[in-house]
Amino acid sequence: MPSRTKKLRGSRTHGRGKKAGRGAGLIGGHGNAGLSKQGKIGMLKYDRDHFGRHGFKRPQCMVRANCTINVAELQEQLERYVDLGFATKDGEAYTVNLTDAGIDKLLGNGDIGVPVNVTVSEASARAREKIEAAGGSVAE
């Protein structure tokens, strides 16, 4: 007895109609296709929150990140701040206004070996310690 394939040689569709034998013809699509039609039960069972928006997004006007600088970066940038007019040099000591430079907080990473008098809106405890140990001061 000949196999079905051999029997149907020469016929264009091998008995499957026009589209059933091509690609994803009768399987209902690929991936997430049909989640609101033939795949609805599976979607409701396993992925109930598939459609729609979820969660909360804060308005961008409310989200504001602090602009910070570390003590080591401050020492590297001192001459630049003097050139830009945010700092002045009095002998060995520098006086820097970080608030005018657009910096919100001074952090304590790194070391500083120059006496610096800093004006900033916030400073971490380690940054205060390091600046005072170098002979400077932090004012808010």
Continuous helix count? 4
From the coordinates shown, what is the CATH architecture of the largest domain?
Ribosomal Protein L15, Chain: K, domain 2
What proportion of the residues form beta strands (DSSP E)?
15-25%
Q: Any idea of the CATH topology of the largest domain?
A: Ribosomal Protein L15, Chain: K, domain 2
* Sheet with most strands: strand arrangement: 2-3-5-7
Tally of DSSP β-strands: 7
Distance between the termini: 97 Å
Compute the average pLDDT.
90
Radius of gyration, in angstroms, nearest whole number: 35 Å
Sheet with the most strands? 4 strands, mixed
Instruction: Note the overall shape.
Output: rod-shaped
- Tally of individual domains: 2
Q: What top-tier CATH class of the largest domain fits best?
A: Alpha Beta
Short recap of the structure:
With 140 residues, the chain is an alpha/beta fold. It has two domains: 39 residues, no CATH class; 72 residues, Ribosomal Protein L15, Chain: K, domain 2.
Please provide a written account of the structure.
Helix content is 25%, strand content 17%. It has 140 residues and is α/β, with parallel strands linked by helices. It has two domains: 17-55, no CATH class; 68-139, Ribosomal Protein L15, Chain: K, domain 2. Strands 2-3-5-7 form a four-stranded mixed beta sheet. A hairpin with a 2-residue loop joins β2 (87-90) and β3 (93-97). 14% of the residues are buried. The model has no long low-confidence stretch (mean pLDDT 90).
